[in-house]
Structures are given as C-alpha cells and as structure tokens.
Amino acid sequence: MDQEINLQARIDEIIALPLLQAIQAILDLTPNLTTLLSPNGQRLVSHPNFTGTADLNSLATFYIRCGSRCTEEHAPLKNRLDYLALDPLFEAFYERTENMLREAEESGNLTERYQEFEGSCCAHCSGHPAAVIPAGFVEGESLFFEMDEYERFWGDAESTGARYWRDPETNENRGNKKASKEQVEDAIRRGFV
User: Annotated region Disordered: where (predicted)?
Assistant: First the structure.
C-alpha cells in the first residue's frame, strides 16, 4: 500500500462501499490496527501501511452498522460468517483502550477527558460502540434473520435469540431470529447461500 494514504481517508472510502465489499475491506484492515489514546483520551487506531490515525468509535459504528445491514440486505451466509471474525477484534480494541484509559487516569497522564458520548439517553440505549461492544450487545449481529428467512433455512428449529419492535411506517410488529454459527454453517453445507 502507498505510505502516503491517510488511514482516516481509507476508512472513509470503506464506509462508502457496498456491504459485501465493506465487510471484506474491514476484515483486511483490522488485523493490523493498533489502538492508542490521544492526550485527552480519545480512542484512536493506527495502521503500519497508512499515515495518521483514525477515530476508533467512527470505525466501530460502521462495523456495527454492517452487522445490521447483513439482516436488512439479506447478505449471503458466507459473508455473515466472515463478519463474525470482526467481533473479537473490536471487543479487543475496546478492552485495550479501556485499560489504557484506566491506566492514564490512575497515573495522572490524562488531560481533560474526551467526551465520548453526548446524548439524551444512556450510551447503551443509543448504541454507542464504547458501551455496546464491551457489553456484548452486538456480538453475532450478522446472524439475525427476518422471520420468514429464518424459517426457510431452519424451519421451526430453536433460535439463539430474537428481537421485536413496532415498525414506525406500517405500525406492525416485526421481528428477527438469531441463528447460531453452527446453524449457518449447516445451512451452507445443505446448499443454501
């Protein structure tokens, strides 16, 4: 890769990609990311093949969105499994930066604390990555399926989870069922894509 490409510019390019290309680009980028903190505690990442740093929360917000898009866009099963490889990477990024923040605060090396979240509800409810990723709320996000899609792949087999909401446009109740990694692997073996 050209050493003159800025990391944040590359992430901005990835954000503009279609879902399947975006997942692959994040998979290619994340293994070589290094976490760091700004002097005020902002979570950042760097990469040996790119200049500058990028905001971890921005990248993580996009990662979370890609998981949801797997359901919305009926992503192929293989791509949903590929996406799963990102879960432990992002969990590790937040675990490391949380430890770094704690150490910086304890040592007095943290200047005025970066305001990571501003909102009218809590960080968990608003889906802020620094709250929902460490809590495991987005783990396996790519394995949610619309009800009819789940039934097509697995019939009445028990799901590993479900979520329900009222559709604001139609005022109808909607829901998704969550498959296990093993269920998805089995569906692929049975010829589903």
Answer: 164-185
- Order of all β-strands in the sheet with 54-55: 34-37, 43-46, 54-55
Cβ neighbours of residue 12 closer than 8 Å, sequence gap 6 or more: none
Helix, strand, coil percentages, rounded to 5, for the chain:
50, 15, 35
What is the per-residue pLDDT across 46-94, written as a single tens digit (0 to 9) for each?
A: 999 999 999 999 999 999 999 999 999 999 999 999 999 999 999 999 9
Q: What is the pTM of this model?
A: 0.89
Contacts (Cβ under 8 Å, ≥6 apart) of 10:
29, 47, 50
Cα 94 to Cα 75, 88, 90, 128, distances in angstroms: 26, 10, 6, 12
Could you give the CA distance from residue 43 to residue 174 in angstroms, rounded to a whole number?
A: 35
CB-based contact 7:59 (threshold 8 Å): no
Vertex 167, ends 61 and 169: CA angle to 5°? Answer: 105
Cβ(54)–Cβ(93) below 8 Å:
no
